[in-house]
Amino acid sequence: MPSILITGTTGQLGQWLRQTVPSGTNVIVPTRHALDLSQPEAINRKLKAINPDAVINCAAYTNVDGAESDDTGAFRVNAESPAEIAAYTSENDIPLMHISTDFVFDGAKPTSYTPNDTPNPLNVYGASKLAGEQAVSKANPSATIVRTSWVYSEYGNNFVLKILELAATRPTLSIVTDQCGTPCYAKNLADALWLLLDTPHSPQTFHFADKGQTNRLEFAEAIVEEALSIGLLETAPVITGCLSKDFPAPALRPVNSALDAAEMESILNIKTIPWRTALRSMLASYAAMRSTE
Fold first, then answer.
1. Which of 61, 88, 113, 125 is catalytic?
2. Is pTM, for the whole model, over 0.70?
3. What CA–CA distance (Å, rounded) separates 58 from 129?
4. Burial (CB count <10 Å: 0-12, 13-18, 19+), residue 24
5. Digit-coded pLDDT (tens) for 91-115
6. Which of 2, 51, 133, 140 has the fewest other C-beta atoms within 10 Å?
């Protein structure tokens, strides 16, 4: 039975990877003490002790605004440690799947980004993730990189749960209209990654998200509408649009970071799920979780 090491298992994707493990597969879920990506100098030694048959690296420094004042921390976790993981997997001839982000792009393209488009990050987080991609590819040319975007789930901190919280406590919400992208339910991403790990393919970079584009305002409106329909919310706040400049943040965000998943769909022979259908599934799951608390 192969043993797959998954990093970042307390995160949204990591939790769903653990819940969707294919039969006949053993997953290794190290504690932070056993494998701390903020300490790249110890990665090789820790991986030797774990001795996995493959690695899915979904751990990351994801505090986009925090990275602006902590570039050292962001680059250690997002670039230096992935380089060490890639070197180990190359030396031991084992598969590596490295998860990256839409924030490697600057948002200037008017249509969805393909894996062949040239990255140009706007912020430290995006720069650290791009550096990680480059370091992984250099240290292990056989590695697979998967970029994703606007990930949300029943767990952790994400846009969907934040909108639910705000909608339940505030009469009005102002949501930006000038940030567009492709939402991705973490469960759907996890399912696709397990399938990709078991599907022969050339080493390359893929994009994966649910189907269709939206902006933050439309996404928030859909969250509230779907939550109302299943009783997660009792009333709806008044939602109005605004611009990113109305809510200045330390890190710049791309105005368009939509990802084109066509290549991954083709390799896996699948069709991605419309983002609103995926949202509906996630909210139903979240409501079921809440009902058992």
1. 125
2. yes
3. 11
4. exposed
5. 999 999 999 999 999 999 999 999 9
6. 51
Burial of 283 (0-12, 13-18, 19+ CB in 10 A): buried
In the block, tokens 């653990």 appear at 18
Distance (Å, whole) CA 24 – CA 197: 14
Q: Which CATH superfamily is domain 3-153+185-211+258-273 in?
A: NAD(P)-binding Rossmann-like Domain (3.40.50.720)
What is d(CA 17, CA 11) in angstroms, rounded to the nearest whole number? 10
- How much is the pLDDT for 293? 64
Read off the amino acid at residue 246.
D
Per-residue pLDDT tens digits for 148-177: 999 999 998 899 999 999 999 999 999 999
Q: What's the rounded Cα separation, in Å, for the pair 151 and 153?
A: 7
- In DSSP terms, which residues pair with 274 in a beta bridge? 211
Residue-by-residue DSSP string for 70-100 = -HHHHHIIIIIHHHHHHHHHHHTT--EEEEE
88 catalytic? Reply is no
- CB atoms inside a 10 Å sphere around CB 102: 26
Domain ranges of the chain: 3-153+185-211+258-273
Whether the pLDDT of residue 247 is over 90: the answer is: no
Neighbours of 93 (CB within 10 A): 8
Please give the backbone phi and psi of residue 271, each rounded to the nearest 5 degrees, phi first.
Answer: -120, 130
Q: From CA 79, how far away is CA 69, in angstroms rounded?
A: 17
pLDDT band at 1 (very low <50, low <70, confident <90, very high): low
| Single-letter residue type at 169 | T
Q: Which two tokens stand for residue 211?
A: 């189907």
- The residues pairing with 96 across neighbouring beta strands, listed in sequence order, are 55
Cα gap 120→105, rounded to integer Å: 5
Q: Is the pLDDT of residue 32 over 90?
A: no
Q: Flag whether pLDDT at 262 surpasses 90.
A: yes
Distance of CA 53 to the CA centre of its chain: 23
